[in-house]
């Protein structure tokens, strides 16, 4: 009957959405591998430059050999500059750009979701006498201090990578919520509730069955702040709803876990149009 046809259409929509998601993940993985290969090449060049600088700095005053393990201050500074320049080249491939300043380096982290450019955030670092954050435009709810404490002094590339993951995931979650409100306001009942970090979304939407409309209540929790898909999904329907809607709620819950929020609603709409 109609419900069997609806389930078939939802299954097809789900399969298509999963395939598209897998394709996007493969493209992202390829981009990461290319960036990693470039990073390894630059690390090789850095090591070569460091060795050359150490060899040049081995002759001290009076032509006496200095300790090879203790390169001159100038050699260390030159190596730091080369390292920063290499870092800029690596992260240019991953949405992070930067430029050297008189006191350090200024990074710009660009965010995007599914090919759509979103926001950019700036981070001004000082590199002398030690690396420290001078100023930034990162939102207060992003755990910048914790990330900096863990990585900034020991691995600046890791620091920027983790920070970028947090910012891109936040931008992706916010983008999905915005798309839902913009394109599916006729299905959403009331106001979509979300916190600043957009890692908790609560809303209701209507589902039709046998010429009647029933509300579905949704709670999406994004436990992994570096991910734009929820880790916990709860979809519930009214107690007086038909038994078949419980199966629909379960199918919707599974879809919310796997694909972007607005894409899930788009598949619901496509299924409804096909039934009509």
Properties at a glance:
alpha+beta, 276 residues, four-stranded antiparallel sheet, elongated
Structural features, described:
The chain has 276 residues and is of the alpha+beta class. It has a domain at 173-275. It has 6 helices and 8 strands, in the order H-H-E-E-E-E-H-H-E-E-E-E-H-H. The strands form 2 sheets. Strands 1-2-3-4 form a 4-stranded antiparallel beta sheet. Helix 1 (2-56) packs antiparallel against helix 2 (73-92), helix 1 packs parallel to helix 5 (243-258) and helix 3 runs antiparallel to helix 4. The protein is elongated and about 85 Å long. Residues 59-66 have low confidence and may be disordered.
Element order, helices and strands?
Answer: HHEEEEHHEEEEHH
Distance between the termini: 13 Å
Please compute the radius of gyration using only Cα atoms.
26 Å
Q: Can you tell me the residue ranges where pLDDT is under 50 for at least 5 consecutive residues? A: 59-66
Query: Into which percent range does the helicity of residues fall?
Result: 40-55%
Pfam family, one: CENP-O
Main location: nucleus
Family: Belongs to the CENP-O/MCM21 family.
Coiled coil: 6-57
């Amino acid at each position: 009957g109609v419900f069997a046809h609806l389930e078939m259409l939802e299954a097809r929509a789900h399969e298509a959405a999963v395939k598209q998601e897998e394709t996007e993940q493969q493209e992202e993985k390829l981009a990461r591998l290319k960036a990693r290969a470039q990073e390894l090449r630059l690390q090789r060049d850095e090591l070569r430059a460091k060795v050359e600088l150490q060899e040049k700095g081995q002759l001290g005053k009076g032509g006496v050999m200095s300790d090879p393990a203790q390169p001159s201050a100038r050699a260390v500074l030159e190596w730091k500059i080369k390292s920063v320049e290499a870092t800029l080249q690596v992260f240019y491939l991953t949405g992070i750009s930067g430029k050297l300043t008189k006191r350090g380096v200024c990074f710009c982290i660009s965010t995007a979701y599914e090919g759509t450019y979103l926001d950019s955030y700036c981070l001004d670092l000082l590199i002398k006498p030690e690396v420290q954050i001078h100023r930034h435009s990162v939102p207060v709810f992003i755990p910048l201090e914790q990330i900096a404490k863990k990585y900034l002094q020991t691995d600046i590339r890791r620091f920027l990578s983790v920070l970028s993951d947090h910012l891109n995931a936040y931008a992706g979650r916010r983008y999905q919520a915005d798309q839902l409100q913009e394109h599916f306001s006729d299905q959403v009942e009331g106001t979509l509730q979300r916190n600043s970090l957009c890692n908790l979304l609560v809303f209701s939407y209507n589902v039709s069955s046998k010429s009647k409309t029933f509300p579905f209540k949704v709670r999406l929790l994004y436990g992994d702040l570096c991910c734009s898909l929820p880790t916990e999904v709860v979809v519930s329907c009214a107690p007086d709803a038909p038994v078949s809607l419980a199966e629909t709620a379960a199918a919707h819950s599974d879809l919310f876990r796997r694909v972007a929020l607005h894409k899930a609603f788009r598949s619901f709409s496509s299924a409804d149009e096909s039934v009509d």
